[in-house]
Amino acid sequence: MKVLQHHFVHDQWKDLPSVNASEASNCQLVLAFGSSEAIVNPAVFNYLRERYPNAALVFSSTAGEIIDDSVFDDSVVASAIEFEKTTVKSVTTRVTDHASSYDTGVFLMEQLSAEDLCGVFIISDGTFINGSELVAGFNRDNTRNIPVTGGLAGDAARFAKTFTGLNQVPAQGNVVAVGFYGSSLQVGHGSFGGWDEFGQERTVTRSEKNVLFEIDGKNALDLYKHYLGDYVNELPGSALLFPLSLKLAGSEKNLVRTILSVNEAEKSMTFAGNLPEGSKVRLMKANFDKLIDASSTAASDSFTAIKDHHPDFAILVSCVGRKLILQERTDEEIIAAKDVLGAQASITGFYSYGEISPFGTGSQCELHNQTMTITSFKEL
Prior knowledge:
Layout: E1 2-9, E2 12-15, E3 29-34, H1 36-39, H2 42-51, E4 56-61, E5 65-67, E6 70-72, E7 76-82, E8 87-94, H3 101-112, E9 117-124, H4 131-140, E10 148-152, E11 164-166, E12 174-181, E13 185-192, E14 196-208, E15 211-215, E16 218-219, H5 220-228, E17 244-247, E18 254-257, E19 259-263, E20 268-271, E21 280-285, H6 288-301, E22 313-319, H7 320-326, H8 330-341, E23 346-352, E24 354-358, E25 365-368, E26 372-379
Parallel strand pairs: 3-4, 9-10, 22-23
Antiparallel strand pairs: 1-2, 1-7, 3-7, 4-11, 5-6, 5-23, 8-12, 9-12, 10-24, 13-26, 14-15, 14-21, 15-16, 15-20, 17-18, 17-21, 19-20, 22-26, 24-25
Keywords: Kinase, Transferase
Protein name: Histidine kinase
GO molecular function, one term: kinase activity
């Protein structure tokens, strides 16, 4: 595997040094992550289309761009990949072309399905989609538990419009899925949060998919506000500081759910993923050192599926909430991951509105919030 990387900043393209450079005409896939303003600039698309005429171009807007060991805003990071033994297929659809987010996931997985499929990477719209339903759709026919990872596009901390696209200037409402085929590619994944839980465990007693109304038979929004203290006047933004830990019935694993909006009239909260009735929840709060250490853990876990080989390429998808909390320390979580991944790995990624990854090797993918999620690739 060979990778070329570029950074579009201050209206100029810069080429990054490459450990194992490729010929542009040989690249099959280009991943471009950028701010909402920059990623829809036709000049960005035109530059990458001209430079990589034979590659599938995948675009996503972000809440921050990751390249090498640094985080940027208001830029575009692009990684062009040449696989030597692996075949790549990219497909896209619009959320509005399907009855539900679940059907969107089913449709895309059907387009990629093949005996030699070894991994799927998803770039999804981050505002129109129900991430939990999308993931469930990808899982429906994935009986071999092929690794499915990715993320939901971001829009800084505005939560207004996200843009994604395949082989065109990105727009709202698209979901892109990239399938990898062959026996030579090893796809690893790791996802970890590093948050501290506090308070008693409670039960979701009334919800509709990702809209929460009651916990323990009491109004959920009022209960949540009780714990926020001075942060209550800064909702919904301050909710990023206090996500919920979610344990589904029959599962020992905890997911994290972030609040996207509150409805004062209905006394409800809308989350980035579903909270089924009967599931258990606890409040969470930030621990800065644990958040940074979580990046190291996610990077280490991503080695498991690639049999402890150091990866050639890694995609880091971290949550916008982590970036808003870490602020000037945000680079530290990227550096922590790079220290584990190794100097030979080309690194890219973005800050998202939701992360997609299995909990462990051989399990189905899940929607995560407030995690660092890493997908590692190694061609043997």
